[in-house]
Amino acid sequence: MNRVLEHLPTRWLSRPWVRSAIVLLSVFGPATITAMADNDAGGVATYSLAGATLGYPILFLLTIITVLLAITQEMGMRLTLVTRRGLGDLIREKYGVKVSIFIFAGLLIANLGTVTTEVSAIRTTSSILGIPPVPFTIGILIIAFLVITRGTYKITQSIMLLVSLVYLMYVIAAVKAHPDWRLALSNLIYPHGVMWTKQYLISYLVIGMGVLGTTITPWGQFFISSFAFDKKMEKDTLKYSQFETYLGAFWTDFFSFFMIVATAATLYANGVGLTSGEQAAQAIAPFAGQLASTLFAVGILAAAFMGLVVVPLSTAYAFSEFFGLSGSLDSDFQSSRTFYILFVVQLVVAALITQIRGVTLFQIALVTQTLNAMVLPLVFYYLLKLAGNRNIMGGHVNGRFQNNFTAIASFIIVIASVFTVIAVALGL
Amino acid sequence: MAFISELTGRPVTDIDGTKIGVLKDLVARPLKDLRYPVVDAIVVQGKAGDRTLPYSELAALLSAAIPLKRSSKEIAEYQIQDDDIRLVADVLDKQILDTDGARVVRVNDIELVRVNGDVVVSNVDIGVRGILRRIGLDRLGRWTSSGSKDDAASRTISWEFVEPLTHDQSMRLKVPASKLADLHPSDIAEIISDLNRAEHSDLLNKLDIKQLADTLEEVEPDFQADLLEHFPDEKVADVLEEMSPDEATDYLAELPDDRRQGLLKLMEADEAEEVRELLRYDEDTAGGLMTTEYVAVTPDMTAGQAIEHLRKVGEEAELLYYVYVIDQEEHLLGVFSLSDLIVAQPDTPITYFMHKRVISVELGTHQDEIAHIVAKYNLIAVPVVDAEEHLHGIVTADDALDKVLPTAWKKRLPHFLGTHQ
Asked: Is residue B188 within 8 Å of residue B219, measured between CB atoms?
């Protein structure tokens, strides 16, 4: 924030309203960025699916997820601020090569899935917009590659802003759809208002895992630590950064809430299932009318593009933390062969998977998010071990609530994962 | 030759052949007259806990099983000293400073060599082969690197060039960093930006005043302030005296007024005076950018006398390439380059070869304009004069351009999405 202040002409700064505006922006800036990065195309797809299939009761899970997201992101942020090391660095230093390879493999698979979701989303938009999918997809992949290798922070920020416009669209759409607000809000506190059939419970479990996996991601944990890497550690900055991460978590799920409400009030209320992008676009029809499909396509394209930029990067950076040098988040690494290989391989593999016929965006998204959710307890385990270690953290060690909440959540995720796998395997 | 990844986990056996535990760590001691630390003890992980046994009690170390010479009950525990290095706990998987390549790297494996009955730490492995060996895939590593000799996969660094970094608060390095002395200040600056706070204050403490000043000149003023925060004021004043006045000024300009005055009082009077003068000018004008450490001669000198003079005063100068000719009142009369001077006969008066039409800027000239002039005339430095042509200082080309080049060029690519400026 000091930097921001420095670059402004001094006579401006003497005006109090300018100062408070800057403080406000610098609070919203980073938090919003993290929030936007968390809600990629897979996120839009999963929340739409959740709202359309399950209605309001899934909002109860969202409350718990928000708390878990806030706690774990804050842990990751604090860990990096105190040690000035990324999560990957710390795991490697404390637990050695084998654990590092294991976790990196998990992250790589989950991220590959996420990138595949983004590519699949791009294909979906191409069909809505009526553009031939193959050249369109290849074109977008090349642009993504150029943005990462040649791009600047400004470009990334513009994409983020575009994405946040999409989310605002859902806020308006949700309001215009005249949902039952009392029912929606009370479902944040306890799930009710539906028939709890066996089928519904199984859907709730499977899609719930998806919602969890898209909101709290393994790559998000590595992302937050590289995010915190540049910050300077001060006692008062720590408090400020904590507030920032909490706000980021709130912001993420603030938009998720409206996405679910918008789809629940339109698709679920009318008993429309969700199998295609065109159907998902109907959620914003009360607001966008005829333009709904096009707007939805543009929005999901922006969200997918952002995922394409951020997720492969997080894989590459995690790789450099685990196996290279931690100070390497600069051009040395970014121009290295390893970086390009890791990056291109992810895009190519993802593009190939989407070529398989008969696989829809929503299927890929759900599988991927479930995969993400299953890798999470592993990442949480090491996060808890590290952030709870007094030798590493000193006075900034985890509190009891943070430890217990995350540990219990991890335990529940593991059990839920097992049930999900069984449910999917038995074709329930 | 052996690798620590292969040694750890091997059984340690008592005099009667029973296994007392497995090898967990090696303790090495840096010796003054030896480039490589010598293994002094081993840490054995047994059922009843860890034991640290002296190397002298081992019948062999680099063998499939590690036998003791005496019964383990008779052996006294080895006391770990402050400067001992626990190879697994302190070095393996950690980041080290490679003083040869001037970079921070991660240790994948450690190589040990037997020398005259001792085992010494010879190399650290930072390549892919080290990782493959750690997970038991050494054969794959040998196969992939069989084609070429010096591929990236089998990279090692000799321990000579290894400077361990501080990893836990409890471990502080006691050895003086003589190896750091060989590094270029901009390399040290680069390394510092890769480290965390505990580490950089550790590293900075190892540098002498001169190195510290040179290094700080290479980093941005706000980072300078950050780095110097932990030093006592006396030391900061010493460092500022050692820095070139324009850099010291940049730093001081960032500080609150009372602290700045305090530091100026602690500095030597004439150094402080130069800085005070520079502080009067705007940061982005010639006055703010200039340094007062230029070399000047009087017009009555011959080439020989000028060379003699430069030998005496050259040490203090920021830039020796241009020599300015000034009269008693410090009016700028001319300039000549070192090459003009060297090719001239020793008895030639300097007025014969000095250039009288000097390209100069005024105290208030804006940095953009200076950069333009420097680029246009291909200058290494440009003199700064006032309205009466009095010479006040010089702005070097790198200072002039430094301020104009887009920050993005200097700062390289953004750090992921984390950089928000």
From this structure: no
Q: State the Cα–Cα distance between residues B255 and B233, nearest whole angstrom.
A: 13
Average pLDDT over residues A242-252: 84
The token pair that represents B18 in the structure block: 């029973």
Q: What are phi and psi of B331, to 5 degrees?
A: -75, 135
Out of A29, A101, A330, name the one closest to residue B412 (CB). Answer: A330
d(C-alpha B349, C-alpha B305), whole Å? 9
Q: Average pLDDT, stretch B55-80?
A: 89
For residues B85 and B79, the answer to whether their CB atoms sit within 8 Å is: no
Return the SS3 of B285. strand
pLDDT number for residue B24: 93
The mean predicted confidence, pLDDT, of chain A is 80
**How far apart (Å, rounded) are the C-alpha atoms in residues A1 and A4?**
5
Q: What percent of chain B has pLDDT over 90?
A: 15
For the record, the structure tokens of B317 come out as 């100068």
Per-residue pLDDT tens for B272-295?
A: 888 887 887 877 788 888 888 888
Q: In the numeric block, which tokens belong to residue B398?
A: 């790198």
Rounded distance between C-alpha atoms, residue B321 and residue B105, angstroms? 38
Residues from B contacting A (CB-CB < 8 Å) are 92-95, 103-106, 108, 131, 134-135, 167-170, 191, 193-197, 199, 222, 226, 408, 412-421
Does residue A275 surpass a pLDDT of 50? yes
For residue B132, pLDDT over 80 is answered with yes
From CA B402, how far away is CA A159, in angstroms rounded? 31
| Structure tokens, A132 | 């031939």
| Among candidate residues A123, A135, A67, the one with its CA nearest the CA of residue A304 | A123
Facing A229 at nearest CB: one of B134, B170, B415:
B415
ipTM topping 0.95: no
Task: Name the helix (H) or strand (E) containing A387.
Answer: helix A361-387
